[in-house]
Amino acid sequence: MAIFVDKNTxxxxxxxxxxxxxxxxxxxxEYGTHVVGGVTPGKGGEWVLGKxxxxxxxxxxxxxxxxxxxxxxxxxxxxDAIYEALDAGIELIVCITEGIPxxxxxxxxxxxxxxxxxxxxxxxxxxxTPGQAKVGIMPGHIAMPGNVGVVSRSGTLTYEVVYALTQxxxxxxTCVGIGGDPVNGTNFIDVLQMFEDDxxxxxxVLIGEIGGTDEEKAANFIANNMTKPVVAxxxxxxxxxxxxxxxxxxxxxxxxxxxxxKIAALNAAGIKVAEHPEQIPELL
Amino acid sequence: MAIFVDKNTxxxxxxxxxxxxxxxxxxxxEYGTHVVGGVTPGKGGEWVLGKxxxxxxxxxxxxxxxxxxxxxxxxxxxxDAIYEALDAGIELIVCITEGIPxxxxxxxxxxxxxxxxxxxxxxxxxxxTPGQAKVGIMPGHIAMPGNVGVVSRSGTLTYEVVYALTQxxxxxxTCVGIGGDPVNGTNFIDVLQMFEDDxxxxxxVLIGEIGGTDEEKAANFIANNMTKPVVAxxxxxxxxxxxxxxxxxxxxxxxxxxxxxKIAALNAAGIKVAEHPEQIPELL
Amino acid sequence: xxxxxxxxxxxxxxxxxxxxxxxxxHTAEEAYTIAKDIGPPVVIKAQVLTGGRGKAGGVKLARxxxxxxxxxxxxxxxxxxxxxxxxxLLDPASDIQAEIYLGVTNDRAARKPxxxxxxxxxxxxxxxxxxxxxxxxxxxxxxxxGLRDYQIRNLAYGIELPRELWKQFATIAKGLYxxxxxxxxxxxxxxxxxxxxxxxxxxxxxxxxxDDSALYRQPELVEMRDTSAEPAAETEARAAGLSYVxxxxxxxxxxxxxxxxxATMDMxxxxxxxxxxxxxxxxxxxxxxVAVALRIILADPxxxxxxFNIFGGITRVDEVAKGILDALAEVQVDLPMVVRLVGTNExxxxxxxxxxxxxxxxxxxxxxDAARKAVAAAQAS
Amino acid sequence: xxxxxxxxxxxxxxxxxxxxxxxxxHTAEEAYTIAKDIGPPVVIKAQVLTGGRGKAGGVKLARxxxxxxxxxxxxxxxxxxxxxxxxxLLDPASDIQAEIYLGVTNDRAARKPxxxxxxxxxxxxxxxxxxxxxxxxxxxxxxxxGLRDYQIRNLAYGIELPRELWKQFATIAKGLYxxxxxxxxxxxxxxxxxxxxxxxxxxxxxxxxxDDSALYRQPELVEMRDTSAEPAAETEARAAGLSYVxxxxxxxxxxxxxxxxxATMDMxxxxxxxxxxxxxxxxxxxxxxVAVALRIILADPxxxxxxFNIFGGITRVDEVAKGILDALAEVQVDLPMVVRLVGTNExxxxxxxxxxxxxxxxxxxxxxDAARKAVAAAQAS
Lengths: 284, 284, 381, 381
Hints:
The complex is a heterotetramer, with two copies of chain A and two copies of chain C. The relative contact order of chain A is 0.12. Chain A contains nine helices and 14 strands. A seven-stranded mixed β-sheet of chain A has the order 3-4-2-1-5-6-7, with helices on both faces. In chain A, strands 9-8-11-10-12-13-14 form a seven-stranded mixed β-sheet, sandwiched between helices. The model of chain A has no long low-confidence stretch (mean pLDDT 95). Chain A is globular, with a radius of gyration of 18 Å. By secondary structure, chain A is of the alpha/beta class. The two termini of chain A are 20 Å apart. In chain C, the strands form five sheets. In chain C, strands 1, 8, 9, 10, 11, 12 and 13 form a seven-stranded antiparallel β-sheet that branches. A four-stranded antiparallel β-sheet of chain C has the order 2-7-3-4, with helices on one face. A four-stranded parallel β-sheet of chain C has the order 15-17-18-19, with helices on both faces. The radius of gyration of chain C is 25 Å and the shape is elongated. The model of chain C has no long low-confidence stretch (mean pLDDT 93). At the A-C interface, helix 2 and helix 3 of A face helix 5 of C.
């Protein structure tokens, strides 16, 4: 088992004919992900990488029975793409796109909360269940199947950690990038609960960063609701207040969201916090 | 027992200092309803009919512990009054006001559906549990306690029926006016379910009218979910299509919403439909 | 409140929807000038707030300005379903390659705006819905999110619109939805939306209904109300705060409350008569309101008898009786009247009516009794 | 992106919020003219995108135009937290009877806009929140419904605003919320909102931050960006599509990915050094981007060593190594460099670096190793 994606994933690619969409679709197919088709308005009827292209998610859904969708469309069209997937009944929507305005995401999130669909991202690297399916932009070959669940707000930092695990022959159930935006579809707690419920996941790595209070909430959740060991790492101890560190959500505001606060909360909850990413395999 | 309102009702009057609000507050107090206070922005601190006036529902709620609110404010302020009551945590909101635009009510209803509060109305006469509480504008003395639940989209037609029942010594558990607008907070099915669950209610009178398909849905609901006998009456058999009969919701549009359709649906569900209001007591 | 075709289309144009460059004429001479101006052939269309103008001969094609003048003179003054034609719209005739339906309405069951498109434009949407419901593509719009681009694509895809027209279609659909919302409409409809000879979309006919409850915030639309197009009695009733609808029967009804008014109308039918009107005088029933209501009822030449049905709730029945009697002192009524007063203080109310001993007025205790008496009186007179 | 006080306030004024009738001066002479024009006494305020200008002497009161000129000449050119003062705002001095705080921000935890008011205006809201949190009245705004009238009343009631000011307050709160939404702001704040001598509300100081992700639809706000107010390197980095933040340390960091960049910064600290910057070069790491990044890092005189930390995922490490070497052919680097390449084809990448045999560049296998080497190099140089 795994969480979010596996051999049963039937993936639709929104923005399949774009440069990024096409490149990563090829990568996902190569990895063995079951891509059933793509959507690009105005290009319905064409074929890309041997997959049918549809004009609308609705048409694609009806024709392919996709249960998952990944979004590579530009930021200004991304919220519409999310609503379209939601409305068509796609269960899992993974939005890679970076740069969606936060007011738009607040609305998206409010709509999501009224539906039974789940959004991962936006501004995230996606999902990787080693040996089964890869949805998004994570490099597939740095991972290997195993029993560690990885959840992270970051991209390359996650790869770094996953790669370090793999090099020590510590495999992963699923690697989950929840994204670096201040408002997103899935947060740490959602994923932690899923890992807790997943029989194959034995240990968990949580990679947080400055900004917001999701790590503090996760610490509290772990202390009260989880039986499986969690090792954490928080990036941004040297980040100055009031400055956005690349990710839209990585900012210390009004004294809140510091790495120190997050590490203190995790420590208080009895969670081991690595001093640097390479320490994580040892702490597991 | 009864539904919606009873001796435990602690009522707040929104718009208590207005002409209508003050008049009906007096009537409600006379009837024995437990009115705990009122709200009129800018008049907080005053007293009306021996009841304290507050500037905001929040302040009134915190100070009085009201569980029910009735709204008499003019149409252009009524949606704000509903949102305010909702946001303050009032469980039951009864909106008497007529003339709220339908697009506004669609939004109100969407918000309501995400809350645990209930709205009755708008454009309704309110609620009357004979001998216990009266919330709204129904004449209290035409009713008497008993075992018949009454639910209606109309005002005076309801009074007519209730009065006819009372004259035959057939008492009522609760008389519910759900209002004549096309989009409202509580519909027939909601109330029918409550009557079905109310141990004191033994029989039910349903008074419908042209427009929409709520009576058809109610017929279907009664056939499938109810054990208690229901007698119905539908007004508007002689109403022409495309014309609004007083109530915003009373209109036959595109061939839908005719009295004939509704009566046929009720008959098909095995529900007795009175030919005229005065027949109702006989059919019970 | 309904808008005329020309009002609807001109408003659509404000929202970026392409419409024929037409003009309104009130006289045949004006029609001649306009036809010359916009260049024939032109279509001359009666502007009436009722359906079926085509069948009634209210739409004609003219190949010359002279022909346009002739057609206009035929159409102007025509009676279509009881509506007199006072204006015609002259549009340049379009080369119609295909007819599409596009409309936004509020779906009361779903409690959301509903946008619908169909490749079967030209006929009314209810007919399409009855004959080939699968040819209507429907998208419910979240009132908070508004019409989204993907929903427009779902419509365009569903009606198999040629792809080169999707962009135009999106502009029109967005414009129509914005117009619907900004106007507090309950219906905004383009039918047909045609594909013309040059392969462009054009809104050839349009229709809008406005939510009466929202008119307080739509002063511009209130200005557009064409009172010349509705029975004078309805205009008068509205001004007096009465809710009145003219019908074809012979029993004038005056009732407090909309539901009770409908029930009263139905009762006249049940006992063999038919109602002349719907009339809700609202709460209270003061003498002045009753007087206006009486005048409106009496202005209808079909009325043979008047039926008062008043439920006294908060207002006591004896007070209402006084109001009626005061009104009768103001308004001369020669027709037979039946008065039924019920509710609080009903005995006292009835006594007042009886004591007044108005020769052509009788009292009734029950609604059935009242309806029977009114029907009998109407048949006798 | 942050706006200056004057930009924020002028924008607030567009939304019906009363502000002092002030003007901006770039020179002391201009300040003299403006002070004469608006009439003394005037307040002269440094326009810098940083806090603490009051303590730094960036705000002064002048009783005459001459005094205003003098104050302006003192303030202009001043360095406040590393920001040079290039503009001053001259406002007519206000008679402050009371200071209120009113601000809208987005609450990421609640995922809703949050409007806050406090009777404790004048000091920053975080301080109020720390000292007397109960004095902040909070209302979360449903992004679909917008700020409702009752919420404004809750705020006014909560801060015990005199009732005669509720209407003014409502206009200001609604204007501020509309401004926040229309500007895609993450913060729109009036502090203080004063009650002046004539008993009216006036927005005396203001602040706005704009969501960078929304700038594509805010061309007017993009125009307002004051690049003169930020380190030139940040402007250059933005133009090149790089994410760069200047810090105070001595180790220049070049990393792909924001999280990894932060982790790298932290590592330099962990091993006794300190980072000179945050720099995310994004995916791919082509030679031209690396070259720009290098130039930006080297422009910082504090930098004593450069640390490259690149994770090769989809892009292979050997390709990244080539990009770095190509960039080094373009940009002359005399400082010690540590290169750590990890991920796909890492051996090949390291081999390429070693073969290039750049004298002042060493390779590292782990991040810890790389950080240690960079710290040592920086301390040695």
